Amino acid sequence: MERLLATLNVFARVALIFGLTMLLPIGISWWLDDGALGHFDEALLGTLAGSAAMIWATRRFRRELRAKDGILLVVLCWVLLPAIAAVPLYLGIAEARPALVYFEAVSGLTATGATALSGLDQLPPSLNVWRAELHWIGGLGIIVLAVAILPLLGVGGRQLMKAEVPGPVKEARITPRVTETAKGFWIIYVMLTALCAVSYGLGGMGWLDAMIHAFSTVALGGFSSHDASFAFFDSPLLEAITIVFAAISGISYVTHFAAFSGRSLRPYLRDGEVPYYLAVLGASVLLIAAYIWRAGVYPEFATALRHAAFNTVSVATTLGYASTDYSKWPLFAPLWMLFLCSFATCGGSTGGGIKMMRAVILYKQILREITHSIHPQATTFIKLGGAIVPNRIILAVLGFGFLYMASTVLFTLLLAASGADILSAFTATVACFNNTGPGLGLVGPDSNYGILGDFQVLVCSFAMLLGRLEIFTLLVVLTPGFWRK
Amino acid sequence: MSKPLAVLRVFALVLLVFALTMLVPALASWQGEDGALPAFLEGFAVTFGAALLLWLLTWRHREELRVRDGYLLVSMVWLLVPAFAALPLMRHLPQLGFTDAYFETVSGFTTTGATVLEGLDTLPFSINLWRSGLVFLGGMGLIVLAVAILPLLGVGGRQLFSAESPGPLKDTRLTPRMAQTAKGLWLVYLAMALLCTLGYAWAGMDWGDAVMHMFSTLGLGGFSSHDASFAHFNSPAVEAVAIVFMTLAGMNFATHYMALRRRNLAYYWIDPEIRWYVGVLYISVLGLAAYLWWSGAYPDFPTALRFAAFNTVSIATTTGFASTDYAQWPFFAPLWMLFLCSFVTCAGSTGGGIKMMRALIVFRQVMREVVRTMHPNAMRTVRLADAPLPNRIVFAVLAFIFAYMALIVSFTLLMVFSGLDIVTGFSAIVACINNTGPGLGEVGPATTFKSLDGFQTWLCTLAMLLGRLEIFTLLVVLSPAFWRK
């Protein structure tokens, strides 16, 4: 109980700052006079008052956070902040159900990009800015989570990914470490966003759209201000810009940081993941282009390549934009894209899924078992980026990989039991769990999650959270052992 | 380096014995004058001739087989015996190509029970007897494989299962151990066969059907002599007998053997798997019965229970009989049944899938990871039946399960690539790799695998073999390192 109160105190501070980020849509709403100003004002005031009250109420429990408190704080942030973020959406959209706006906000903060709203083009611009800003803020959180907090906790073999992070590794207190790590990465993140927004602007988007889509692209989210997503623009240039920035965002920020501070591209080549990531992405684009071209979806290869490149990179990096309704392609193509999104992105990026690093370890472990079968006495090692991976980490990765697959099966069964057909149930699970966005069937790229029932939408929200928090973080908080003294 | 010639010699002996078993349907055909006699005699002549030739070529190589030779021997038996078994089918049904005939016999010999034949009721009795006889023989081979050979090879953590089986553990010579284990287990198997036949006959089958279905039941195969499978009999008594014997055949035969020899039922309680197996199985039966009744598939609970019990036990134990077209049930029910078949049966039974033992280990490993996330320095071991498991076995089990899941994903993608819908593609692969039989969609219980094209049929055949040989056995033989000196 003391832990909960101490963590709540910190959480309230986070919520306070989070509330202040509403000033951006407030400014835009005031400038454009789009009618949503009052909703944001109410939400902001409510958040500020609520957080202040909570800080005051828990002031006596304030203390330095320890590792376990860190787990709790992360979970609280990702579960409760969406509830705050949902308030302006709920007030601003007349027909919105509570479950749907919570889903929308979770989808925003986990950088998923699955939307439950339709008629995006008619929404007040400030609401669309708010949705995309959620992605962007979520992205900031994800980077800290991925490069500072999860490795510290050792979730699913994440220890591996902290090796190069600056700062004292042995430090058990969580706050100084997080602040320190975050700074360097956030600079890169902000620069990427600015670069992306300018590129979109020069590429022909309006400045508001450019900002919204830059937020969404760099966080690998996928919210758009248009129901038709990128098909609205129908511009090869804008698509090319997206492909470049999505591909960059799928790479670990640790690697970006190393390259940036050393002013050298070598870290990308030496990275244990990047070569696999780019190879898998490139090969898949060609494969899918060839497949849909042969199947006759597009008469010429160039068109097939354009659409294959954009949609494959978009889904595989867990971004989730669509430039066409790819669910109409022969089923193999979208299924392969969804398959990619479950593992293609790199460890310290804003992407979702099990991450390329774990996929490589899993693959190498299978080869190792074959060797062990032939030579039962052999001592073998798994190497990654030139270093030996300890057995303990491999066990953690294997456990994570299993839990990931088991959760996919379980969520699919849950959605099927509540009445969805298998294609929709399975792809909704995969798309949410990997924080990608659009699935197939009922929840395909030209549809949205608003079609699902409240229960199903909540299941999907839970899947997004579980995926984003790498399962264990959430699971640990749910075990009785966590709350014992 | 393995000794291929010495292995070939043993294989020749196995084939010789196998050829003799073809005389049984030949006898039945002669007795019933059903017109299939030449097919069996020809098949016998070719198989016997080939076996004799092989033996004459290799009889000099009387070297003692080592454990590692087991991989080659096992792979050869399961790959080549069905090829010879297909001869009578191809001779009698000329329209059946080798692809389909080989699929059918692999399906029999791996105790899968997926069929490409339609009009089973009009086939000669001897052909049906041969099909189900293959299941019975496959089951006999399987028990030895599961209890004696795989543990010795240590495939996917199988070392563990050797604990309870009789015979010296440290012995690295293959043949004496196999022979010794086989004797006791086959005695149990044959005793159960006798009881099952009597049971079916008592419940109202004619003797021919009783023997045929007993073959199929004990091997947990699922071939029937009727297109309608058990719906043909429409008898609760017959279904009850089937349920009892399917449940028994899904338990570890080593446990049956011990219980029988010591005349002590406590062995069933000591067995770490059986209580989970029975628990999961029958709770699922009740759950599905309630679900079917509640969703209105059956007007009253007893009817729902009857159909849920038979079909759930049949699919979950990887048998594959059907007493109704359960593909018409609300989708969750058949999906849950297929989910069960992937892990519910015990190691050392004739069932397929990853086995309850591995499921328990992986579950405990996940719990260990959860604890480790909270207490990074805690030392904890995974325990099974009160004994700590070495990490090496945990590794092997996890790698096995991961390979199993990766196989399902990649084979499903290949099925979809070749043009199938997802329900058919996915369920066909799950049903084949778990050696269950009927899937859903185009390959559902009311239809057959006939509608698949050549590529898809071969893929399913490969899936059955990989599933039956626990993936690694086949992978090892295919790896270059196995053949290196």
DSSP strand count of chain A: 2
Return Rg of chain A in Å.
22 Å
Average predicted local confidence, pLDDT of chain A:
89
Write the element-wise H/E pattern of chain B from the N-terminal end onward: HHHHHHHHHHHHHHHEEHHHHH
Walk me through this protein's architecture.
The complex is a heterodimer of chains A (485) and B (485). Chain A has 485 residues and is mainly alpha-helical. Chain A contains 20 helices and two strands. The longest helix of chain A is centred in the middle third of the chain and has 30 residues. About 2% of the residues of chain A have low confidence. Chain B has 485 residues and is mainly α. Chain B has a domain of 246 residues. Helix content of chain B is 65%, strand content 1%. In chain B, strand 1 and strand 2 form a beta hairpin. About 2% of the residues of chain B have low confidence. The interface between A and B is large, with 52 and 50 residues.
Keywords, separated by commas or semicolons:
heterodimer, A: 485 residues, mainly alpha, two-stranded antiparallel sheet, 20 helices, 2 strands, 1% strand, B: 485 residues, 65% helix
Quick take:
The complex is a heterodimer of chains A (485) and B (485). Chain A has 485 residues and is an all-alpha fold.
Topology, element by element:
The complex is a heterodimer of chains A (485) and B (485).
Chain A: H1 2-20, H2 23-32, H3 37-57, H4 67-92, H5 98-109, H6 125-153, H7 174-203, H8 207-218, H9 236-249, H10 253-262, H11 266-270, H12 274-294, H13 301-316, H14 332-341, H15 356-374, E1 382-384, E2 387-389, H16 391-417, H17 422-433, H18 454-468, H19 472-477, H20 480-483
Antiparallel strand pairs in A: 1-2
Chain B: H1 4-21, H2 23-32, H3 37-58, H4 69-92, H5 98-109, H6 125-153, H7 174-203, H8 207-218, H9 236-249, H10 253-262, H11 266-270, H12 274-294, H13 301-316, H14 332-341, H15 356-374, E1 383-384, E2 387-388, H16 391-417, H17 422-433, H18 454-468, H19 472-478, H20 480-483
Antiparallel strand pairs in B: 1-2
